[in-house]
Every structure is written in structure tokens, then in C-alpha cells.
Amino acid sequence: MFEINTDLIKKYDRPGPRYTSYPTAPHFHEGFTHEQYLDEIIRTNHEAQPDLSLYYHLPFCDTLCYFCGCNMIITRNRDRIKQYIKYLKNEIDLLRTYLNSDRKVIQLHWGGGTPTHLDPDEISDLVSFIKQSFDFKENSEEGCEIDPRGLTRAHLEALRNGGFNRISMGVQDFNERVQKAVNRIQPEDMTRQVVNWVRELGFESINLDLIYGLPFQTVDEFAKTVDTIIDISPDRIAVFNYAHVPWMKKHMALIRPEDIPIPEEKLAILKMTVEKLTSAGYVFIGMDHFAKPEDEMAVALREKKLYRNFQGYSTHAGTDLYGMGITSISQIGQVYAQNIKREKPYFEYLDEGNLPIERGYKLNQDDLLRRDVITKVMCDFELDFDWVEQKYKIDFEKYFAYALSNFGEMIDDGLVTIEKRKLTISEMGRLMIRNVAMNFDGYIERKQDTARYSRTV
Q1: I need a labelling partner for 28 at 20 to 30 A (CA). Which of 124, 277, 334, 391 fits?
Q2: Segment 31-70, tens digit of pLDDT
């Protein structure tokens, strides 16, 4: 069992990036041009030609969950959804004209919003269009986020028949009082029914999300939810810290701050959750992810093949990630490019024959170096100084003098060790891996990062 030291969590708990990218999204800017994006697409097409990872943002939801931090649209207007799907297909067609047709798709993900707010026929139609538009590798990883509320077996059949083999579903908390406070009524029997359907239909993996720090949560009550999740036995579990950021997400103001657990209670909930899950045999991947030992993510951790991108931890490194739909982010070669966030201008860009890029970022040599280092830290939980020096032709101790000068306390606290020119993160350090990675962040070092982030634990 992994035992949590809550005193250390208190000591290191501070705002910081989640490092789904480096530089992080607040550094993207509107000076990044459509032409820069196209130049990078052309360059990657003619050089390494890595496999493709495709992400589709389906932003629509039936009801508003007050805790939600996603880019979503609440609507029951089916014509609005149909129009969006039409333009999503237009974006696919436009992107295809720039990509070599022999490049293979190894990963597909639908996120939201709620992708299963589409009806089963719309799901079948869209996935068929995608499969006809790109060449998929055999045994590609194809995942979809679902919401059991309003979900039918027909939705899952449409996904499975289309080739999807992984499902991710939010649970958050089974406590009825908590569910009412966040406007997400999802009884245990509903969740179990959907999990049973997923297994009956032959999906290879199911992930369930929990959130701690929601209104009225207590250690004893949340322990009941964790025990139930262990009994349901998903392949993966994500345990997220609720970030109350009403200045960014106005609907979060519907949650009263006085109903949110005090910091000490939140830490006790986290400690209990991590210890229960690891005692039940789940492998602590890092930060907020857990997986069964035989799951691909746990295997990737052991084999040092774990990767991190805008979907979080992944088992497919080295791909070009193309995001489609409003707000989606692409990561190809040396650039990040984010799509327009609103429907109308998204449609207008596509009508004009342009990829709907609103902002982005082109990485410089320092960015590329630090991205590699932070990725190694976040995914391998170790860093070989010699490897960095050989790849980038630098003097590691000189280049990262600032980072190394900050590790004294972390070493004393048992979060990291530095021996034989190698940084190794302990199991406790994995829980605070964002803090470790921040030491290598050049924008923090140069005091050029003024963004407001969620807390690190």
C-alpha cells in the first residue's frame, strides 16, 4: 500500500501547470498564423511522417454539471448538433488535403462535452466518415468519453461497431447529496448498468473518473464511493482534484464556497482514496491516475513508454496529434495550434476554405529541450542527465543550474534523489510531480508565467 504523507502535500501544495503541453496553453497567442500551422504540417509530412492521433471535440451536453471545467455547450437543439457535425466533416475534408494519405492513425479519441449526446445514428455516421477519411492501423486505440445519463445500449453498440475499444465515464461521487449540489444525478445502478453493457459488448478497457473536493464530501462518505468503484473494478481510475475557478468558469459560482470541504478534509479524502486504491492492487501511475497492473498504461509505465499530451497520460508517444472541432488543440512537430472557440466563426473559417486556427505557438530550441525534459520527468519519473546532454549537446548542470538549486528540500523530504547524474522521483514524489516539473519550466524561471493555475495536489 502507498502511504500518503499529508504534511508534505500541505508543504508543496501551490498553483501550477498540469503540463499536458510545454509551453503551457496560456502561452499560446493569436500572433501564431494559419500559415505557420500549414508550414509545419507540410514539414512533418515530408520528414519523419509519424503516426497520427486524432481528437474530435463534441462540445454538446444535455445538462450543466456545476463542477465542469470542460469547453461545453448546453443544448437540446438537434439541428444545432447536426450543423456542427456537418462542419466537423468539412474540417476533416480540408485537413485531409494537406496530409499524406499513407500516414496511419494509431489513436482516436472523442471528447467533450458529451460525445454520446449525439444519437446512435449520428455516432455511426460520423465514425464511418472518419474511418473512410483516414487509414487506421490494425488494433488502433479508439476511445470515447460517455455520460450514462440518457445513454442507451444502442449508443454503445454504435461506438463498438465503429471500432471504438475504450470507454471513459465520469462518476465523481455516488453520494446523493453531493450529486444534487453539483447538478449531476447519477445513481450507482445506472453506472453499473453501463459498465455491464460496456463489458458485454467487448470493449477492451473502461476508465472511471472521480472528483474529490466537491460540496459536502467527507472522508467517510467518499470512502463508500471508492469501495464501490473498487467493486465495479474498472481497468483505470482517475481521481481529480476539483478546482473551484469561477473567474474562469462562471457556472462554478453555483457551487457555494462554504460547502466545499476545508483543505484538511480534502487532503484526508485524497490520502484515503490513494491508500484504498493501491491496497486493492491498482498501480499508482502518477499525479491522479491509477490502473490495474496488466493495463496498457501500467505496462507503459514499467517499460518507460508512457507519454503525456492534451488528453493526459497516453501510451502512444511520438505521434502527430490533430485536434478537430471548436477549442481543440493540435500538437504536431514543433507547433501547437488551437481551433476557434465559438461555433459561428468556426463555421465561417471553414466556409472560406481555411483551417479554423485561432491561436498557437511555435517552439524554439529551449522550448523543445525543456519539453523533452519535463515529459521525461512526468512520464518516466526519472531523468538521465547524460541522455539530455547527448541529445541536445549541452552541459546539463550549467543549463539547469536553477532547477538543480531548487531540489534541496525535495531531496530532504524524500520526494526525489539525485545520484550518479540521474534524477529519480519517489512514489510520494509522483503525487507532486507537477511541483518537480515546475523546476524545469523556463517561463517560471524567467518569471514570464503569470497564468492562474489549479493547485498542484
Answers
A1: 391
A2: 998 889 999 999 998 887 899 999 999 999 999 999 998 8
For residues 74 and 256, what is the distance between their CA atoms, to the nearest angstrom? Answer: 22
Query: Grid coordinates in use for 215?
Result: 460540496
- Long-range contact list for 312-317, CB < 8 A, 24+ apart? 312/20, 312/238, 313/285, 313/286, 313/289, 313/379, 314/53, 314/107, 315/141, 316/51, 316/53, 316/106, 316/107, 316/141
* Per-residue pLDDT band at 156 (split at 50, 70, 90): very high
Amino acid at 373: V
Q: How many residues does the chain have?
A: 457
Q: Kindly report, as residue ranges, where domains of CATH 1.10.10.920 are found in the chain.
A: 1-22+364-457
Q: Which helix (H) or strand (E) holds 324?
A: strand 320-324
Per DSSP, the residues of 277-315 read HHHTT-EEEETTEEE-TTSHHHHHHHTT--EEETTEEES
Helix, strand, coil percent content, the chain, rounded in steps of 5: 45, 20, 35
Contacts of residue 350, defined as CB under 8 A and 6 or more positions apart, other chains included, come to 87, 90, 91, 94, 356
Q: For the domain with range 1-22+364-457, which CATH number is right: 1.20.1080.10, 3.90.110.10, 3.40.50.11270, 1.10.10.920?
A: 1.10.10.920
Three-state SS for 382-424 is EEEHHHHHHHHCCCHHHHCHHHHHCCHHHHHCCCEEECCCEEE
Non-local CB neighbours of 300 within 8 Å, separated by 6+ positions: 306, 307, 315
| Region(s) of the chain under CATH 3.80.30.20 | 23-321
Of 191, 221, 224, 193, give the one whose Cα is nearest residue 209. Answer: 191
Average pLDDT of span 363-374: 97
Does the CA dihedral 25-447-37-434 come out positive or negative?
Answer: negative
For the stretch 64-104, pLDDT in tens is 999 998 899 999 999 999 999 999 999 999 999 999 988 99
Closest CA to 326 of 311, 347, 341: 341
Buried b (16+ CB within 10 A) or exposed e, 21-41: bbbbbebbeeebeeebbeebb
Cell of 302: 514499467
